[in-house]
# Entry
Amino acid sequence: MWDLGWRQIAAIDAALAAGAIDQRGWHEAMAGLLRVPYLTAKTPWEQSGKSGSEQDWARTRKVVTEAIDRGGTFLDVGCANGYLMECVAIWAQEKGLDVEPHGVDIVPEFVELARTRLPGWAERIHHGNALTWRPPRRYDFVRTGLEYVPARRQRDFVTRLLKDVRDRLIIGPYTVDKGDDRVEEELRAWGFELKRRIEAPHEDPGGVRKLLWVDQSWWWRSHSRAMARPSGTKSVDGSRNSAAASARGIHSPETISSGWWVIGPSHVVSYTKLWQRTGGWSKVKRYRKVSGAPVMPSSSASSRRAPSAGSSPASTTPPTPASRRPGNTSLSGLRRWT
# Structure
């Protein structure tokens, strides 16, 4: 075991398995292991869980930026005092990339500490359990550790985070014995496709540090296949293409085929753009297949208002057909979803 608190962690896991505590109790117990050592630590990297020197911190954490290949937003799940957020922004800048860091942590004292350390970023640092937290936006890059949730919820955890990622979900860095590929095997068994894996030497010759990532393109491909199935059949994540799936944030069109789609009162996109650019089904408030030419939005005030969450596409007045050909995406009066 590479975690120095493995005995305490094993006891907490056993208590959860035996039913002595529930999932909330598991999180509270895990937070209890970290609260005192983090809050009493003298250096910012120790407050983020890394002992040793600042050079040790950089050697073991800078690998995260290997998964960041362009500018954008970065969310650190389990951000503690925000030091990794701070360092990723600096390390990315060294690569010529402009990264805007954000963070979320389940321990309120850590969130308060991070906001105190980084007052200019206070609004970007959130308190919540990433399994249930509703982020205010989607992020280009999200970093997390699977150990942040009970083992039986790790698949749900990865699925949940992928819905909030615009580009890439980064897992790690974490330390295992050399040759231990259980994390990769579990991810593949759950149906996730690894984009890349990085291994870095550990100071102990028997160990290795790993960083993995899954790209958002995988999520879209897998869910496009699932949503194309008839209503009532199971999708990739086990939900059904029905009201239950919609309640989980998976809004399935009745049919999936090539053509034009209307998203909201003033967005028209092609089928390809729908899957690649919409920003997740949880963001899609309305969708309607257009047969033939694309459509123009109605000029009425009611058509310009965003539909309510419970409204039905069938309850609205169809917009006026456009005179443009279906293949032209530059439609006058329409905003393209890009």
Summary: Residues 6-219 form a domain with the Rossmann fold fold (CATH 3.40.50.150). The CA atoms of residues 265 and 301 lie 10 Å apart.
